[in-house]
Amino acid sequence: MAKKKQQSLVRLIKSRTWRLNNLYHIRPKEGSSLIPFRLNWAQKELYDGMWNRAIVLKARQLGVTTFYSILFLDDCLFNPNREAGIIADTRENAEEIFRTKVKDVWDSVARDIPALRDLIYSTIRLESEQGKRLIFSNGSAFRVSTSMRSGTLSQLLITEYGKICAKEPEKAREVRTGSIETLPRDALLAIESTAMGNEGDFFTKCRDAELDTLSKRTLTTMDYKFFFFPWYREKAYTLDTSARVPPDVEDYFEKQSKELSRKFSETQKAWYAKKVAELGEDVKREYPTTAKEAFEQSIEGAYLSRHLQTAYLEQRISTIPYIRSLPVHTSWDLGINDTTCIWFFQVHQDCVRFIDYYENADEGLSHYVNVLKTKDYRYGKNLAPHDIEVRDFTIGKTRKEFAREQGLIFETVPRPNDVMDKIESVRNLFPQFYFDENKCARGLTCLKNYRKEWDDKNGCYKNRPLHNWASHGFDALSTCSLGFEAGYLAIKQLQDVAVATYDVFK
What we know:
Blueprint: H1 2-13, H2 16-22, E1 25-26, E2 35-36, H3 41-48, E3 53-58, H4 64-78, E4 83-87, H5 91-107, H6 114-123, E5 126-129, E6 133-136, E7 141-145, E8 155-159, H7 161-167, H8 169-180, E9 188-193, H9 201-214, E10 225-229, H10 247-260, H11 266-279, H12 283-286, H13 291-296, H14 305-313, E11 317-318, E12 328-333, E13 339-348, E14 351-361, H15 365-374, E15 379-384, E16 391-392, E17 397-398, H16 399-405, E18 411-412, H17 419-429, E19 433-436, H18 441-449, E20 452-455, E21 460-465, H19 469-485, H20 497-500
Parallel strand pairs: 3-9, 3-10, 4-7, 4-8, 8-9, 11-19, 12-15, 14-19, 15-18
Antiparallel strand pairs: 1-2, 5-6, 6-7, 12-13, 13-14, 16-17, 20-21
Helix pairs in contact: 4-5, 7-8, 17-19, 18-19
């Protein structure tokens, strides 16, 4: 009888689907006691749609990390010589994942089926625990860390990759080049995260994978399969209908209902309204309704986050036409062997209207002079930062002198005392800024991503900006705001248009 029971158990554990739904226990969202693990709707979708490479954009608390932790542990236990790994965004999160989603799960394998538990433990033993790594008697191992460059992994999960890309670009580069690139072709790679801004490797991978899905392109083993899990598919995300739903949230759902061709229940609206009250605009990042919406939200630590949100709400970022009766002024950030950025703007009554933006790199000043000539604008003031006065030894004169010889007259904006003075200058004038959403798209992306530098050691933002690709677009905008402070331009300038207008290229 005992032999037949054991044979029956052996037959059961040959099925991975049965094992995933019967062998493992996890910690619930609330409470400390372990509960049996069962695949929820999101986990089942990942399991049924398994692919060599998966990228998952999701709402919070859907169990994606838990699913891959148990899938990897199961593979290590029932297949010899497997090496599984999880990369977390912080050391604290790595420790938490290892303790609650790996070690605790191993310690409670088949806890409700003693005979099966004894059978597994007699076959597979834990040989050693080294830091955040379990090594089993069948030659398999499972580790959790913040980076993995050494060793050959058969499975890898990267959690909160969007946060890594946004806060720590160098670490993201290390993950991309040092961890992902060392995986063998047949390895299972999964990347999951909430969104953090519309730049970086996570955004790029999601965008490309989503386009492949929409175009129904046949994927290769090197392509990522896109999974998007919005909040409204989770049944738990509902609230008593007696809760009040504000008019702006009702308007939001009316718009989403039309775009998605779906109806949201009153209980879903009530739950979402509470999240809006708690999180503000960040709700669209933490609990996205659409993939596009998730990436449109401002990233943490961004200096202009609140100002840009207000500009969108006030419809100051839309279609801004060129007024031919007004001069077009330019403000610059000049790069030496680096990026040069130009904002094109007009002053109308009490508004500063940014109608165009241009950016390029590794080009001489002559290139940018020619760009201005090709645009059908009547130019006014051209504002440049203080470093335009620096002598360029390759041409034997300052760039301001060189530009004048080519017909471009610059006004030099005084250097601010401190970088925060520059930031405050932009913030103070921002309520009067209007942007053309299409022509200034790249510049707006720079403004959204101009942020504080992240201090990985102390787990907080430093009180200084991160110098990266977004800095140049912001610095060019600050040239504009500092130009107003210096008196080169004045708000409510319409009555002086006839006097101020001139074209340096005529």
